[in-house]
Structure formats: structure tokens, C-alpha cells
Amino acid sequence: MYPRQMRYFTNQALQSLEYLHGQKFRLPNGQIQASFVHGNLSLDSVFISPQEQLYFHDPQFRVYLGDLALWERLFDPPPSVRLIPTVAQDLKALGYVCFYLLAGGERDYNDRFFDPRLSQDWGKTDIALKLFLLRLLELDIPFSSATEARRALLNLPEENLLDEIYRDSLPTEETRKRQKKWWWWLLLFFLVGLLVSGLAWWLWRRPVAMAKNNTPTCCISDVAGVPTGEFTYSGEENGIWNYVWRQPNLIKKDQTLEAEFAQRRPQLQLEYLPQPTGEKAIAEVQLGNVDFAISSLTTNLSNDLKARTFAYDGLTVYVPFSYEQRELSLPKYLNGQISIQQLQQLYTGRITNWQQLGGPDLPVRLYIPKSQEAISLFEDRVLQEAELIAQFRKMVERGDRTSRSGNSEGNMPKIVQMSTIPALRTVLQEFENEQIGAIGFGAISQVFGQCSVYPLAIGDRNNNFIQPLIQENQQPIDPTTDLCGQKGSYYPDYQAFQTGNYPLAYPLAVIFRRDNRREAIGDRFAEILNTQESQELLSKTGITPIFNP
User: Fold this and answer.
1) Could you give the count of Cα atoms lying within 13 Å of 434 in the half-sphere of its Cβ?
2) pTM score
3) At 478, is the secondary structure helix, strand, or coil?
């Protein structure tokens, strides 16, 4: 949208919110509610109805806000059903809708979400409107109500960036005199433009939609063009997809996601052939040994491969969370957070006791998962430097030799490699029984539903600490949160993972060859995973869907 259209759109949307937030409503059960919020604002719940353009001062369309959370979220499973929407969330959500309309969509050509914190992601707009939207987005002083926001919008200066461009481009008096002899060229262009406009009107005879409907396909069975028969695909044996696909009881009792998909699309027969690492799984695709792979390693792919994202996950760094020994609580001493620099020092053996970070007198023990994809991501996002990565790998090898031989190799720092679920129990037991302060990392989807460890907030490049878990009130958890007693009242921060604000977030994608000679099973399976039905199933496994189901 252009700035003038955006002002017109925002004014109508704020009018609707002002009405919702300020009126009394009688619910079907007879209860009187003083006001309620929309709670489900997004590009998918905003409807724009174009009207015939009878004059040119204001854009001609009407804005409707549908799909209110009051009924859209009525039968959502936990934790979504416990969310209590607020006025502030409505205004922020509207800010994102406006930002995406100015930017031309939610994602760029690389499937990256546009970020209002990045100036290059903004479409053409004037400074006054941008500053107003930054307040809506809570990136500046937020508005307290829709009424205040609308009053501020109506008081914005009339002139915008496009007006300035047009004004600056007007010819001077001298230029007009020079160009007078070309008046007939202008007349010709006008007549041609009039002819083309009339032809376009005759061909279309209907309003052009001003907003793109990017609502995903509803159901797995609705995806067209899916090849039938037997196909093979790969992934990492210890990776998060292997856990999501084959772990029972994640979506329903004694049922795996693999079996669920087989029931819903029986004509599609997929054989899963996991590999020791994600790199080898992708190599199998490139060699043509399998039809596609699922991996989080979506960067640095060769030009003959394509990746289609269907969900997000992330690494979480955790320490023991114990009620029996709260005085030595690491979450308390660390204030629930840790920086990238501190993680570098821990995982290269420079810090061996928590006293060095202002904590209790406890020795440090380091854990890592068995997933090579997770380790690669940790090296890339946390360690970053070749020297640190080399030291880290040396400590991993030392830990592996110790576990195989039983020799401790003295006091040399080492790293213990263990699957995430057993590691969570081990970390707590060592803290309570042996007075050892362990630290580990793993996929957030495997960690957030338990309370034996505390997931730490991670500092980004600007040293802003992002907590991966939030509570029902949309506030991050902290060391005082009762993780055991309040299970189900906190969950991954979807927006932080979807936008990439959480420093250790990563996408999950279907990776396949760009080869028209092969059947497009990889692309079609990605389409299946991006349906509303699949996204709801995926959200039950603990990973973050690409949109909130």
C-alpha cells in the first residue's frame, strides 16, 4: 500500500477497535461484557472490500476485521485457550498488519520475515507515518488505547513522501518554457493512456483486490498434484525431525506423527531413511538416492537444491531447576539469563566454576545433545570463531574418550554428549545429589514441557536478553516462576521464533532438487506440511508452526 492508502486503512481499522474496546456486549449465554478485544488480528483476519473510484482524494475501500478470538479460539487446545488478549496486543498486531501491507508481504524472496527494526524492510512511506506505526508496534512509546492512536493518526501532517517526490519533480518555469513545443507529445501520451485504461476496464470489469489472500490450504487431503506411490526421504537420525516424526504420545496417546499422516493420506507412501548427520541426509538428496530431506541446515545449500520452510525450532540453554536447594539455584544467581560470550567461555573450558560468573561455589559440567545439526548450529551461532570451535571439539573428543574408556583424564575440561531427554534428568540429579552445576543445550521443543531444568534467556548481539518461553500474560518466565506447579501456563514464544528475534532460532525445511525430470514429491510434501491441518499437528509436537494455528 501507498502511504495515503495506509492512513485510510489504519483509520478504519482503529475505528473498529475503538468500538470493540469501548462498547458493552451481550454474549450468547446472556453475560454482559463491558468490552472485549479482537485478539486475533493478522493479515488473514483483515478483509478489504474495494469500491468504485468515483473521486481521487481518498482511496475507495472498506476495511472489516473478522475472525475474532472470542470464537476462533473457543476450542483451541492448551496452551492457546488460556491466552487472555489485551488492548495493547490488538494495537501491536494492527501495527504489524500495517507494516506488512507497506512492505508488500510478510516475507522476502528468501522466506525471511520482514522486520520493522530494519529500515530496509519498510516500504515507501513518510516519516510521520513511520513514527506513528513504530508506536503501534511498541518500538516507541506505545499508545494506551485505540482512541489515542486514532487521534494521533488524524493529527499527522498531511504531506507525505510521495507528495514531496512529486513536488520536487515539477518542472521549473524555465524548463516549462523549453518544453512548451513538446506539448503535443504530452497530448499523445494522454490519449494512449486513456485508451489503455479503457481497454483494461473493459477486460476486467471488476475491482482489483487490494490485499493478497495468503490463507493456507485447510486440509492435508486438499493438496492437489501429490504424486502417488512409494517415495523415500531422509533426515538426521538424532535430529529434531526424527523425534517429531517418530516419538509416540506427542499428538495423541500411543500415536506418532508418522502414523497420523499415513492415515490421512494413505495413497502417499513415504519411507524414512535417516542418516547419521544432516549433511549426509542432504548429500543423499543431491546424489539422487532419496527424493527429499528434512533438515534445519538450510544455509549454504548448492544452487541445485531448494528449501521450503514449514516450521521453526530453536536451541535452548538450560541449567538445573531445583526446589530442594533453592539457595544454590543457578537460575537465581544468573538472573535467568546468559550471554553469548559467557557461553563461549563455558564451552571452551575457560570457566570451570560458577563462582567465576558470580554464582555459588559449584563445579561446571558441560552437556551437549547427540544431534549433529544442533551442535553445528551451536558452533555457528554461539562459538562463531574457528579457534573456539576447535577447542570445543577437542573437549567433545575428550569427553567421548572418557565415556568409552572410563578414565577421567585428570581435571582436563571435557564435554559430555547425551540425548536431550536423559540429560535433563541427569542434570537435576547431579545438582541435588552431587553438588554439580551442569549446563546443557537442546531443542526447545524437547525441553519446555518439563521442570527439571530452567531455560535461560540468551543475549543477542546488542546484549538484549530474549527468553524463549512466555507465560499466559505474554511476559517471559523468570527464576521465580513455578515451572512445575504452573505446567501448561507457559510455552514457546511463537513470535520470537517466527521472526528470528530469538538468537538460537532456526527453520525446519523440506529440501529437494530443482529437477523438473523428477516427480515433485518434495515440493508437494512441503505443501502438505504447510496446510492448517498439518500446522496444528506440528504445534502439538512442540515445534513452532509458521503461522499460529
Assistant:
1) 12
2) 0.60
3) coil
